[in-house]
Structures
1.
Amino acid sequence: MYNEAMHAMGVEPSVIRELFAYGAKRKAEIGEDRVFDFSIGNPSVPAPVSVGRALEELAKLPPAQVHAYTQSAGDPTVRTAIAENLNARFGTDYTAANLYLTCGAAASLSISLKAVLEGSEEVAVVAPFFPEYRTWIDSHGGVLVSVHARESDFQIDLDAMDAAIGPRTKAVIINSPNNPVGTVYSRENLEGLARILERKQAEYGTAIFLISDEPYRELVYDGLEVPWVPDIYGNTIVCYSWSKSLSLPGERVGYILVPQSVADWENVYFAIAGAGRALGFVCAPAVFQQVIARCVNEPADIAAYERNRELLTSMLDDLGYDYIAPQGAFYLWMRSLEPDAKAFSDRAKAHELLLVASDSFGVEGWARLGYCISPETIMNSRDAFAALKAEY
Ligand code: PLP
């Protein structure tokens, strides 16, 4: 009657969404300010005023012009504006021909995986990883190979990656700044990965794509460098969205970049266009393409996240929690107070603290705290965190 695999995916709730829905219900029951919801990555910073201005401007144009289909890959003038922004920042020479506009990073990843995977090829991901990677890899016939991050600092474990990559590896997905850990991969770490991938490509005579999932690229603290990955490894496909940097997650707009450094890049780009077509991801939302053309040079506003990071880390330090110091994005990776992270998350729930257990990110014993929330929620959660700690 229907596709069993798709049905199973529809029935099985995402742990994050489930917790978020529970939080909404609980807030209605006991009051918004009594639930400490660290569950989801919905930006708390409003979109810049220039987005509102662009929308007002667009509302005055002839509707037939504003709402019309664009090219499947996106309006060429919009793609040119994005290419120019990247060229100014990274000293590159991209044009509209390198860019395919999408409905957010989710579509960028799904399209890129469908474009490169043939048969049951392997995709290595760094664990803990964004749970939807499994959904997209599985549904495009690939096999997820989970490679645990380095224990000490959650950078890529190069020895483990070396051991995991074989003749069937088609792609490696990295995400920096990282969800769920908040780490930013150093240049040295990425150069080490590039050396492994180049050696493996030569050894097996295959192409191994590095898919760089970057929706948090601009959300980085203390002036830390987020290296431009295609400069380090040529066969890199960049997946991006403005969901986090411009706080536009509901508008579904992002891109795939296939740089000239990708081997046979024009044909890889055609495969991206074909996969976009096959998945029905053609012509990203037209109004927001135009908004992006007007706001692409707008800086991300990280001040609020920076302040929240400070509030949260000093509170957790005071209370004696163990965590990985976040370098970017708006997540903190905290060690669970018992080996079973799900049980820990359930105990936290009893204190109205909503923390995502690490199991859904492919590892055990940790919890993710999203701090893209109001500073008051963080400050008011202190007693709950203290009570939770006291239980152990
Ligand atoms: N990749 C990572 C690591 C994410 O955290 C997210 C969203 O939270 C996505 C991809 C999907 O982004 P988008 O909302 O732009 O589709």
2.
Amino acid sequence: MIREPEYFSKLFENMISMVTDPEYFDRGQFVDLLSEICNYFGIAKGVTEFYRSPAHEKIGDGEILVDFDNGRGERILHKRRFITRTSAIIQGTLYVSNDEPPLSAEDMRRVDLVLRALLSFVSRNRLQRTVEQLAFHDEFGYRNIRFFMRNLWVLQERDQLNGYCAARYNLQHFSLVNRDVGRAAGDAIIRTHYQHIQELVGNSGLVCRMGGDNFLALFKTDVLNDVIDALRGIPVNLPDNPVARVMIRATAGVYVLPDGYEFDTTDDIMDKVMSAAAEAKNGSESIVFYDDNMGCRKDEMLRIQSKFKDALEKQEFCAHYQPKVDIMTGEIVGAEALCRWHHDGSLVFPARFIPVLEQNSDICLLDMYMLDTVCRDIRRWLDEGRKAVKVSVNLSRKNLMDLDLLTHIKEVIDRHGVPHEYIEIELTETTSFVEFDNLRRIVCGLSEAGISTSVDDFGMGYSSLNLLREIPWSVIKIDRCFLPGDGDSSACSDIMFRHMVSMALELGFECIAEGVETTAQIELLRANKCRLAQGFIFDRPLPSDEFERKLAGFRYDI
Ligand code: C2E
Ligand code: MG
Ligand code: MG
């Protein structure tokens, strides 16, 4: 058979163009070209094999590609094997039929050239894929944050960002799920959940794992509602158990990219979904959409955080006292210390700075400062022979992480020589088991030291009644949202309030209603034997000198 060298040159040149230019490469055309080359040399079959390492080759874990096969390959014509610098193995074998006449030395040289070019192309491709797998996936095979970023860039490059949303979500209380079902089942649940969201976002979207139970998703606005529904809660089957299911809920921050949106760096999108997600985690809404005010809130947060230490040193924080009143006698029987910040000539309320300080442990410094201030005031009242009452001090749950909290509290109180019965520590309900254990430990310790404790905003959190059964509180403070208001005609809130009070009293706790504003509410408290009340109907939190004047013998007219 006569083989035209010019024809070979043309085929080979074509091949080289294809394998060296990713834009020019077309899989179908490449296969056709290889067939043509094989036909040119009378080759019946061509096989390439790729193994990531000799160990992978040993167990046959690799990729075997049959590049061409006309069914007549009977003996090996030529074979090439390379070991790359990363120990990957790439091998190519060419077969001919038994009756195929031998090739000239020149043709064999050309065959070898083609095979080497092919192997170098395949190995580069496979290695690139391996590198991508390692770079864009985590050790469990989930797509990682680099994958997310890369796709953002690709979409922007192609001018296709319009109509996309980004979300960052966290599976709620997943440590409890792990605890209940075991780590292995927990991992399987995470994977099922991930696949479910991946299916929802479809081919135009993607989900990636940031680590643990934190994820990022990018998807078209058309599926936004479906994704949000799923994040609010979907039942996921336990592995190997078709009947048992757990409800997986997530908190999420979502950013709907505005039309024509462009970024300079992907940090912009990340910052936005992160701040929305932080609000979702700390606030009452489990799904929060980013809006531009969040940026301002973030700026303000940074401002407060940067000013805090200095303000604490300059004693800009002070305690205002809100009286607690015995509604049978109108007498002030206690007070709650509430923090106020005198800053730049104005009075800043806790709603502005407490949530910010709770983002890190600054709040613990403030709480101890408040306890110190209160103890100093009580000591002064006692020393000056004034009437003194028990004062409650709010302690953020952040303090529960401090193993020496009990010692710190006692140290402050004892430093001022304040008898323990003058102090009450207010703590709110907890959200996790770990916190619950710490809470129990602290409350037990305080109670042993003769320091009262109260559960603040009772009924607002998600704790079970174990909170009352297992923790020896002194006082239950019923949150004002359980107190039927003026225009509140619902019998339900009446019934709930009545039963909360009677349960608290029967269990032997003191009971105080917070946020009392009307005489009708006072009547209701009386009817339900809730003797203690605190609220604007008596007084707002008062500066210490004003409170001291009231304390001396004043009775509310009720
Ligand atoms: P809280 O401990 O539940 O305190 C009661 C809040 O309800 C106070 O708001 C009080 O002014 C307000 N309040 C009292 N009576 C009424 C009423 O009749 N109607 C209405 N609508 N509100 C009433 P404030 O002082 O703005 O404090 C808000 C929250 O900030 C407190 O809620 C507490 O959780 C936190 N906080 C205040 N001071 C401190 C502190 O020193 N440390 C910590 N960790 N938290 C504090
Ligand atoms: Mg309180
Ligand atoms: Mg409260």
